[in-house]
Amino acid sequence: MSQEPTIIQGGMGSGVSNWRLARAVSERGQLGVVSGTALDQILGWRLQDGDPGGHMRRALAAFPIPAIAKRVLDLYFIEGGKAPGTGYKRIPMPLIDAPPSVRELTIAANFVEVWLAKETHSNPVGINYLDKLQLHHLPATYGAMLAGVDYVLMGAGIPLKYPAVLDAFANHQPAAYPLNVTGAQAGDDVLMRLDPKDYLDRELPPLKRPKFLAIVASNTLAQTMLKKANGRVDGLIVEGPTAGGHNAPPRGALQLSEKGEPVYGERDIVDLAKLAALGVPFWLAGGYGTAGKLREALAAGATGIQVGTAFAYCEESGLDPDARRTILADVAAGKAHVFTDPLASPTGFPFKVVTLEGSNSEKEVYDARPRVCDLGYLREAYRTPDGEIGYRCPAEPVTVYVSKGGTREEAEGRKCLCNGLMANISLPQMRGKYLERPLVTSGDGLEDLTRFLRPGSLSYTANDVLDTLLAAPAES
């Protein structure tokens, strides 16, 4: 692929944008993207399921640091899979000073997902990270770069200090990244650090520095990234509030609709002419997943579009097959519904939730869940009274959260996204007799998926999506 892609496949939720989906899109010459969220957890649990198909072990056999691959397999692989009805072995939660075994798993996991996505072709592949999940940035990025990742996409924050990480790791040099710590004071050490030489057992040639695409929701943020980032920003992805997953909060005072959803206004509309004047490639996302919208984006000066929801429900995605069929049946029947929940996410960002019977989208189902935080990806780092760094999540037990300086009001309505997203991809944790339930997200365009469904069918492929998006306009 000698030029920038016209279509970028979105990096949806943990394991939904998996290596199979990214591979299918990249094989067509567009940009397939794997989600970088919780890949350490996903690799560890896939191995505990016995690694069906042997894909994880095949990728680990190609990992350039064999000793790390062996340690990962020794820790997590179970021949034939764990016993039915038992829970997964817990993987330690992320910390600013995580032990080597945790970082090794993260490095290996990001390598595995990118390597598998690139295995059958020579076209570029990207990986998507959330800036709010900062504790994994350094080992995750290094692992993806060891696999030759071509693009890194990052949103859910303002990652001004990230480009320099790519520059350092390209030469296997140490890198640092600041952790956002609530209540931090001048002089506190809030830097995360990683020196690749602590993990390498031999010298490796320089790595390719991937292109960095910042995901933004406003002209102001786009300008800030280009002017103040500590390295090269190669392009921008502009996400509107109709995109799935987390949305940027509305600008100004929060107002809710009669349904209880955040109301977006004129201040939340991006000026595309000003964006084009910045002089870097940009892609439009959120409500642009049609051939007509693609042509509209190109006419406005965009390089192309990013599409999430349409790919999230195709056969190659990692979404649980039963959940996918049920939701697509609702789509076909005109009953599918997406609610932009202002409270569900522990991050405080609005989060889109698909109404799905038996899932944590239903209040009574979620209220029956034991309130626990044991994956910890969305925890907030905070300064404790003795000057140390602690971690808290408004979705953990309320009394625990309050004991760490949080408030009951902040915990009201919060849901555990981490466990819900793992259940979404057929990796639900079992605790005693309780099995985690899904919490599916989607963009507002969910009901439009009927255009991919043939009569009598509740499935379609990534190629069907690409064929539809790239279709030439009909002759008038």
Question: Which helices and strands occur, and which strands form pairs?
Answer:
Layout: E1 7-9, H1 19-27, E2 32-35, H2 39-48, H3 55-61, H4 66-76, H5 100-118, E3 125-130, H6 137-146, E4 151-155, H7 163-170, E5 175-178, E6 181-182, E7 191-194, E8 211-216, H8 219-228, E9 235-239, H9 272-276, E10 282-285, H10 291-299, E11 304-307, H11 309-312, H12 321-332, E12 338-341, E13 351-354, H13 363-367, E14 380-383, E15 389-392, H14 398-403, H15 408-411, H16 417-424, E16 430-431, E17 434-435, H17 462-469
Parallel strand pairs: 1-11, 2-3, 3-4, 4-8, 6-14, 8-9, 9-10, 10-11
Antiparallel strand pairs: 5-7, 12-13, 14-15, 16-17
Helix pairs in contact: 1-5, 2-4, 2-5, 3-5, 4-5, 5-6, 6-7
Q: Could you give a quick summary of the protein structure above?
A:
With 476 residues, the protein is an alpha/beta fold.
